[in-house]
Amino acid sequence: MKVTVVGAGAVGASCAEYIAIKDFASEVVLLDIKEGYAEGKAMDLMQTASLNGFDTKITGVTNDYSKTADSDICVITSGIPRKPGMTREELIGINAGIVKTVSSSLIEHSPNTIIIVVSNPMDTMTYLVHKSTDLPKNRIIGMGGALDSARFKYRLAEALGAPISDVDGMVIGGHSDKGMVPLIGKAVRNSVVVSEFLSEERMGQVVQDTKVGGATLTGLLGTSAWYAPGAAVSGMVQAIACDTKKIFPCSALLEGEFGLSDLSIGVPCILGANGIEKIVEISLSDAEKAKLAESAEGVKKTNGLLEL
Ligand SMILES: NC(=O)C1=CN([C@@H]2O[C@H](COP(=O)(O)OP(=O)(O)OC[C@H]3O[C@@H](n4cnc5c(N)ncnc54)[C@H](O)[C@@H]3O)[C@@H](O)[C@H]2O)C=CC1
Ligand SMILES: O=C([O-])CC(=O)C(=O)O
């Protein structure tokens, strides 16, 4: 199993590290445009192998796509991150060009690959890869909901005073400060809906804290987060590599599912060897449907800025 990660910055390196630590891939290629940068990150990571106990071989390359040839899975993290006060949507001007060039170079050398898009604004970048390449739709997947759901579980556990392993919940919709739809009505503590434990007001706070999770970290760090994003990507890569058929909310191209079409947005998906094996059309309440529709409008507005 060969995995390429483009962008050896904060998220790309974290992603490579978690993939290696989980020890399911034979090889991870890190590629960056900055001379020597990916080579340095790869060497540093390889020097953790004996300490962390993995056999995955990590190599770094400067913009040499021939070294990525025949990758089973490619992750795109190249592009600029936001700074405090910015939205993810403001990154489109620079990141669209990068994502378009990178995806076409990857496919040239790995025509059968599955692509996971991370660069922001992620739903729009995922849609751009659908529009600008010939890969089938099950092989282009955006990462956002896996991270947002992890943040939702963190906030739920905090509100409940419960261990994180006791809570479950999912976030669907666009990966943006306003567009996320944390499904609070379906969130559970050991199979009991959280409304049994939390007031309406506290649940509203959990939802709001989840939606601005990325912005909160950007304010604290001066740039956006990387540990949880890297872990979220590695979980999706593992589900595909090991054909686990686990459900992750992913940005998938919709063609009528949930009453939506011609956009990529976060919905529950079964991930396996074929990438998105199935979009799971869970039933939503009227309020949840309205929020998803509003979120889709926001994503489409950003898609409208693409030069296709
Ligand atoms: N979808 C999600 O949930 C998340 C998305 N992100 C996004 O991921 C992206 C990366 O974030 P960070 O790693 O923090 O940024 P970073 O600045 O640390 O790393 C980005 C790397 O991309 C490289 N790069 C730029 N253009 C390139 C090209 N044409 N080819 C190859 N490499 C290129 C840069 O040299 C840099 O090393 C940002 O757009 C950020 O907004 C970040 C966290 C979560
Ligand atoms: O907040 C950002 O810009 C990066 C990101 O998508 C996240 O951490 O959720």
From TrEMBL:
Family: Belongs to the LDH/MDH superfamily. MDH type 3 family.
Protein name: Malate dehydrogenase
EC number(s) recorded for this UniProt protein: 1.1.1.37
Major enzyme class: oxidoreductase
Organism: Flavivirga aquatica
Location of the Lactate/malate dehydrogenase C-terminal domain: 147-301
PROSITE patterns xref list: PROKAR_LIPOPROTEIN (PS51257)
Role noted for this protein: Catalyzes the reversible oxidation of malate to oxaloacetate.
Gene Ontology BP, a term: lactate metabolic process
InterPro entries (UniProt xref): L-lactate/malate_DH (IPR001557), Lactate/malate_DH_C (IPR022383), Lactate/malate_DH_N (IPR001236), Lactate_DH/Glyco_Ohase_4_C (IPR015955), Malate_DH_type3 (IPR011275), NAD(P)-bd_dom_sf (IPR036291)
Residues given in the record as NAD(+) binding sites: 7-12, 32, 95, 118-120
Keywords: NAD, Oxidoreductase, Tricarboxylic acid cycle
Keyword Iron-sulfur part of the UniProt annotation: no
Pfam families, per the entry: Ldh_1_C, Ldh_1_N
PANTHER family: L-2-HYDROXYCARBOXYLATE DEHYDROGENASE (NAD(P)(+)), L-LACTATE DEHYDROGENASE
SUPFAM superfamilies: LDH C-terminal domain-like (SSF56327), NAD(P)-binding Rossmann-fold domains (SSF51735)
Residue stretches making up the Lactate/malate dehydrogenase N-terminal domain: 1-142
Lineage, opening ranks: Bacteria, Pseudomonadati, Bacteroidota, Flavobacteriia, Flavobacteriales
Entry binding sites for substrate: 82, 88, 120, 151
Annotated catalytic residues: 175 (proton acceptor)
Listed GO MF terms: L-lactate dehydrogenase (NAD+) activity; L-malate dehydrogenase (NAD+) activity
The reaction(s) this protein catalyses: (S)-malate + NAD(+) = oxaloacetate + NADH + H(+)
Gene3D superfamilies the record matches: Lactate dehydrogenase/glycoside hydrolase, family 4, C-terminal, NAD(P)-binding Rossmann-like Domain
